[in-house]
Design goal:
This protein is α+β, with helices and mostly antiparallel strands and 108 residues long. The protein has helices at residues 2-7, 15-49, 94-101, and strands spanning 56-58, 64-70, 74-80, 83-88. The longest helix is centred in the first third of the chain and has 35 residues, at 15-49.
């Protein structure tokens, strides 16, 4: 359909006709690849900035624990009784932590 419209333009496939597919590819690439990634990064940064003592988290390595101390760039996580590990805040996984803190839905 677009090619039919472009062929009807005066002069056939002019400069607009040659660059339109490239522009469409760039627009599709932006909306399906770049924009969602930027949104995901903003959500991760917001989550990491809002971490507080007592939050249950999962690291990107899959370690489950509870935050007992929050520093500027690190967090101290208690993974078992008297077992504490210090992690970079960037190692906290937003998706896995969200799943951990979401209550399970029981089917009746």
């Amino acid at each position: 359909m677009i090619s039919t419209i472009l062929l009807q333009l005066p002069g056939g496939m002019g400069a607009l006709g040659q660059f339109l597919p490239l522009v469409l590819i760039i627009v599709v690439f932006y909306f399906f690849m770049i924009r969602p990634q930027v949104k995901k990064q903003k959500d991760q940064k917001k989550y990491v900035d809002e971490l507080k003592k007592g939050d249950k988290v999962v690291t990107s390595a899959g370690i489950h624990g509870k935050i007992i101390e929050v520093g500027d760039v690190t967090v101290l996580i208690e993974v078992d009784n008297n077992v504490k590990i210090r992690f970079d805040k960037s190692a906290i996984s937003l998706e896995a932590s969200r799943l951990l803190n979401t209550p399970a839905v029981t089917k009746a």
